[in-house]
Each structure stands twice: as structure tokens, then as C-alpha cells.
Design brief:
seven-stranded antiparallel sheet; five-stranded antiparallel sheet; 29% helix; 20% strand; disordered N terminus
Length: 484
């Protein structure tokens, strides 16, 4: 047997021999000791609920962990981390939302499930205290009732943990910044089992890292405290153009968006079969939005097939984007991992890039995006408040980007479906050239991303790696695209 951290601990007497199996993994007695330390259930193979508890978002990664610990308090997380470190056992944190490549479920390891740690409270001065297992639907519902706003994504089933730690793109980001820009403090369990309060006054280096440095690299966050903004009325628009307009939209949209006021965020949804949708969200009344939309239509040189505009309050706007009736109810909840909701699991692969300058050859980009009719590309506008945050304030490395580009493709059933989908998104990812460079968004993880560490973290990478070595020298939280 090779000398690993696990075998070293056993040989050195760190793990009693009676509590390990012949291959060096924890035996029944040791698992039972962990079970007794937890306030929530520990679910192991063969036990009731295991096949539900092991489920993550993506059907492509139905792995089989040695156990799932449904944690209810910080002490549960500490017990799990100490157990994994002592036994040399793979460990992963799961907030219960989306994970594109399934790293939150680890084969033959321990899943630290935070989905029950999901409280959302709005305190004085608009501070929001949010458990790491909370999802965006209930968060927006609570904030909306309190008249407050936190920028974030549109899918109600996305978890606050991964969203924040990777940055947090959303429909009001140009006006209010990324989700991570509002992070004031967090509770973090590090590899030594300590529960640390991370803030500007305590552990400022870790606060910098948690603001966009990726999930799972420095420990397990159990709760977040955010500053929020007063929620204004918001106006939305949507335009649908004919397929022949795609190259024109790709040509004018980056410059048009860049010239718009910070209050206006827009994006493009481009289907591989040629369908085109562009829309956005404006922090203000619809009467002020309409002239900006008129300007986009004028630049396109053609009337849209459809045009809609509406004004709503913040809660109604986020409900509109989520596409489900009740942000806090089962219609907007996940169906996986015992969520009991109506939102289905994912069956697609994805890749990403960051647009650094307007497209040099919009026609060639349009050809790439329509090279497979099953492709779907989302281009989200940057600039505004996103670009105003300095590198010393957060680890998010793409402040100067014009937009993020996410390319998705469903996986067809049967042999070869996953490989074909990866080839299709890879052709787009690698074909966008110098307009995107070596970039990517860590919340859209891609296991085949070339030079992924530099792509996701850019100039923040050396500092992030140094912090990972300081707080997790033995790589207790190691995973395939984790910092080392």
C-alpha cells in the first residue's frame, strides 16, 4: 500500500487499529463514534434514505459516498472535518444547490451536507444572516418582504454558498455588484477543525479569498452575513429577433451595453438552432427603460419579432426570472437530495469564458454558437459596479470583463452522449480566441477547461494558493480542480 495521509495516520497510531478496515478506511465503530457526535443524521450505504441523500444536482455525477452527514449546527461540521482529517478520508461540502461537475459528492468519502442549515434573517441596518444551505428562492422571498435586495442569480434552487464563494453574477449586478461584494463576514470551519469568524477585522485575508476565490478551497462556510440595499422597483424587457440577426447582435451588443447606465443590466440567450433572445433588468421605472431599448432596436436595424416590458417590485421581479410561482414554496425548490420540490435535476454539460473586448469577428462567433442545434449560450453583461471593486478587496479576477459567456448542451441518452456534448461545448470554448483569452468563471466549472487555475483565478491565483497552503497544508479539502 502506498504511503498516503491515511496510511501514515494509521501507522503512527493516530487512528486505532480496531476502528479501521483492512484496507485502511474507517471501520464501523469509528463511524458510530461520529454518528453520536452529530445532531443530525449520518446516512451510510444500505441505510434508509441513502439513495436520496447522495443525490446532487447533476444526474451525470451520481457518486456513492461512504456517508452523508446532514449537519444542523457548526459543531456538526467541525466533527465531520476532524473525522475526515484524522482518517485521511475524502470530504466535500454540499450546500444543496447547483454543482456543474458534482464535486460536492465524493466517491467513498464523507459528504458534509449543509442544506438543513438554511435560516435567513434580516437584522438591523439591513444586514442579512444566511445559513450556507439556503437557496436563492427563500432568500429573495425573505429579503423582498423586508424591502431589501441582495444581488444574485435567477434560479431559485441555486445555493447561496457556491454562488457567493465564486463571485455571484446576477440581474442587478451592474448597479449593485456581485453577491460576494456584499459579504461582510462568514463562519468558516478550516481543516484544523476550528470555527473561525472571517471578517475585515478578523481573518481579513480569508475574507478576501471568500469573495470570489471559489468554493471548497479554504474550509467549509456554515453561514454568511451580507450587507443589503434598499430594494427599488425594477423594470424588465425582452426582445426576440430572427436567426439572421445573431451576428448583428453579437457585433453591437457589447458596445451598446458598455455605454448604458449602471442601472441597466442585459444579457443575450442564443440557441444553437438560431433563436435569439435579449433582455435585461433596469433599476428604475419602465418609462426610463424604454428609450434605451428603442436605441438597441434602432442599432439592430430590424424590428424584433416580439417585445415585452414590465415594471415590478423586487420580489415580483425575482419570481419572474425564476419562472416559478412561489420562491419559498415547493414549486421553486429542488427535487434532488430530499428537497421535495418541482425543479428537476440537470442533464447537461457547460463551459465558460469571459469576454474581454468586443467580438473581432461576430459572424464567426455566430457560426460557432450555431455549430450544434442543441447548444445554448448565455452572455451576461458586466461593467458598472462590478468593475469598481479593486483587486485588494476580493479574489474575483474578472472585474474588467465586458461579459461572461456560458455555453451549455444537454446530454443525449445512451453511450457517447456525454462525450458528444463535451465536444460541442469545447469547440465553442476553445474557438472564441483572443476576445476571451484564457479565462473562465469558476461557478461554471468545466473539468476539461484548459489551464483552468489561471482561467478561473487570473492574477489572484498566487495569493489564493498561498492561503490554501496556510489554512489547509495537508489538503483535507482536496478535489480535482481545487487549489494546491
Amino acid at each position: 500500500m502506498a504511503l498516503t495521509r491515511r496510511t501514515f495516520l494509521i501507522a503512527a497510531g493516530g487512528v486505532p487499529a480496531a476502528m479501521v478496515t483492512k484496507d485502511g478506511w474507517p471501520g464501523h465503530d469509528r463511524w458510530e463514534r461520529l454518528r453520536r457526535r452529530l445532531s443530525g443524521p449520518l446516512i451510510r450505504p444500505g441505510e434508509a434514505g441513502y439513495d436520496v441523500a447522495r443525490q446532487g444536482f447533476m444526474t451525470l455525477y451520481d457518486r456513492r459516498p461512504a456517508a452523508v452527514a446532514r449537519c444542523l449546527r457548526v459543531e456538526d461540521v467541525q466533527a465531520c472535518v476532524e473525522f475526515a482529517a484524522e482518517c485521511g478520508l475524502p470530504v466535500s461540502a454540499r450546500s444543496g444547490g447547483h454543482g456543474y461537475v458534482g464535486y460536492s459528492t465524493v466517491d467513498n468519502g464523507l459528504v458534509v451536507d449543509l442544506s438543513r442549515m438554511d435560516t435567513v434573517r434580516v437584522r438591523g441596518y439591513g444586514r442579512a444572516e444566511i445559513g450556507a444551505g439556503a437557496r436563492l428562492g427563500p432568500i429573495y422571498a425573505t429579503l423582498g418582504r423586508a424591502g431589501r435586495l441582495l444581488p444574485g442569480g435567477t434560479c431559485a434552487a441555486v445555493g447561496i454558498g457556491g454562488l457567493t464563494l465564486g463571485g455571484g453574477i446576477g440581474v442587478v449586478a451592474r448597479k449593485y455588484g456581485l453577491t460576494c461584494d456584499h459579504l461582510e463576514s462568514a463562519r468558516l470551519v478550516t481543516a484544523d477543525g476550528r470555527a473561525r469568524t472571517v471578517s475585515a477585522e478578523s481573518e481579513p485575508d480569508l475574507l478576501w479569498a471568500l469573495r470570489g476565490g471559489g468554493g471548497g478551497n479554504f474550509g467549509i462556510v456554515t453561514s454568511f452575513t451580507f450587507g443589503t440595499a434598499r430594494a427599488p422597483r425594477l423594470s424588465t424587457f425582452e426582445l426576440k429577433f430572427p436567426p439572421a440577426s445573431m451576428a448583428t447582435l453579437l457585433d453591437i451588443w457589447p458596445r451598446w451595453q458598455h455605454g448604458m447606465p449602471d442601472e441597466l443590466w442585459t444579457n443575450c440567450g442564443l440557441h444553437g438552432d438560431g433563436r435569439i433572445v435579449t433582455g435585461g433588468c433596469f433599476a428604475g421605472p419602465v418609462e426610463r427603460l424604454r428609450p434605451m431599448v428603442d436605441d438597441l432596436v434602432r442599432r439592430m436595424g430590424a424590428e424584433p419579432l416580439e417585445r415585452t416590458e414590465a415594471e415590478r417590485d423586487y420580489l415580483a421581479t425575482m419570481t419572474y426570472y425564476a419562472g416559478c410561482a412561489d420562491l419559498a414554496g415547493s414549486a421553486c425548490a429542488p427535487s434532488w437530495n430530499g428537497g421535495g420540490g418541482a425543479i428537476g435535476r440537470g442533464t447537461y454539460v457547460a463551459a465558460s469564458r469571459m469576454l474581454r473586448r468586443p467580438f473581432t469577428d461576430p459572424g464567426e462567433v455566430a457560426r460557432l454558437l450555431t455549430s450544434d442545434p442543441a447548444l445554448y449560450t448565455i452572455i451576461d453583461g458586466f461593467g458598472g459596479a462590478i468593475a469598481e471593486v479593486g483587486p485588494g478587496e476580493s479574489a474575483f479576477a474578472h472585474r474588467d470583463a465586458l461579459a461572461s459567456i456560458q455555453v451549455l448542451r444537454d446530454v443525449a441518452p445512451g453511450p457517447g452522449g456525454k462525450a458528444a456534448a463535451r465536444r460541442a461545448v469545447g469547440l465553442v470554448r476553445d474557438g472564441l480566441g483572443e476576445d476571451v483569452g484564457t479565462t473562465g468563471y469558476v461557478n461554471y466549472l468545466d473539468p476539461e477547461m484548459p489551464d483552468w487555475a489561471n482561467a478561473y483565478y487570473g492574477r489572484s491565483l498566487p495569493r489564493l494558493r498561498a492561503l490554501a497552503r496556510r489554512y489547509d497544508p495537508d489538503r483535507v479539502f482536496a478535489f480535482p480542480q481545487g487549489l494546491d
